[in-house]
Amino acid sequence: MSRSRAVPPASASAPHRSKSKLPAPPLTTSRGALLVNGSDQAFRQLVHTLLAFLARHDTVRDGHAAAIGLSGIEYTVLISVQSLSAEGQVSVRELAAHLHLSGAFVTTVSNKLQQMGLLDKLTDPEDRRRLRLVVTGEGEALLARLAPIQRQVNDVQFDCLGAGDLGRLLASVDKLVESSDKAIALQKYLAPR
């Protein structure tokens, strides 16, 4: 004789709520372009997916940095100076604008890289009040040692982008950085005092 499990009566089980009867959470945006059928779910998904990407990219950046004995921001400053130097002389102000960081912060990081012997600050021959940043031979050697690994990792991380995607994504992210600066200023203004 087989035993059967007793099924509890419907009233004893956990209450079942219909999704349609739950109140909708308040919208997190009111811009029509960001709403789909009056819902901000797609917008929320975008924000959460961007956060997931940024967390993973930070991990990749920190991995590149660790491979050459630097912190993430030290690596970013060093490789940015190298990259921007290919286009001409680089000042702290230009580097700060490129990285969307304060000049004071970039000065602090570049001073540390200078103490490590990876970055040098030279007087600009055309304007003696201005310093230009230059990657030293030791800094160039570190970045050269990292380059083969960096290429492989970047190729995999961004393998989903085609040439057209890259341009569109860069333009969109540039706009998002600018509008995010405005949003931060508004958030500070609206914060309770």
Describe this entry's structure for a reader.
The longest helix is centred in the C-terminal third of the chain and has 28 residues, at 163-190. The chain has a two-stranded antiparallel sheet with strand order 1-2. With 193 residues, the chain is mainly α. A hairpin with a 7-residue loop joins strand 1 and strand 2 (131-135). Among the domains are: 57-146, Winged helix-like DNA-binding domain superfamily/Winged helix DNA-binding domain (Arc Repressor Mutant, subunit A), CATH 1.10.10.10; 158-188. Mean pLDDT is 89; it is low at 10-14. Helix 1 (41-67) crosses helix 2 (72-85), helix 2 crosses helix 4 and helix 3 packs across helix 4. 12% of the residues are buried. It has 6 helices and 2 strands. The protein is globular and about 70 Å long. 58% of the residues lie in helices and 5% in strands.
Helix percent band: 55-70%
Poorly predicted tracts of residues: 10-14
The CATH architecture of the domain at 57-146 is Orthogonal Bundle
Instruction: Give the class-level CATH name of the domain at 57-146.
Output: Mainly Alpha
> Over the alpha carbons, how many angstroms does the gyration radius reach?
25 Å
Number of strands: 2
Shape annotation: globular
Largest sheet: 2 strands, antiparallel
- Assess the beta-strand content as a share of residues: 5-15%
> Strand arrangement, largest sheet?
1-2
Total DSSP helices: 6
- N-to-C span: 73 Å
What integer is the average pLDDT?
Answer: 89
Could you tell me the CATH topology label of the domain at 57-146. Answer: Arc Repressor Mutant, subunit A
Structural class of the helix and strand makeup?
mainly alpha
* Order of helical and strand elements: HHHHEEHH
Can you identify the CATH superfamily of the domain at 57-146? Winged helix-like DNA-binding domain superfamily/Winged helix DNA-binding domain
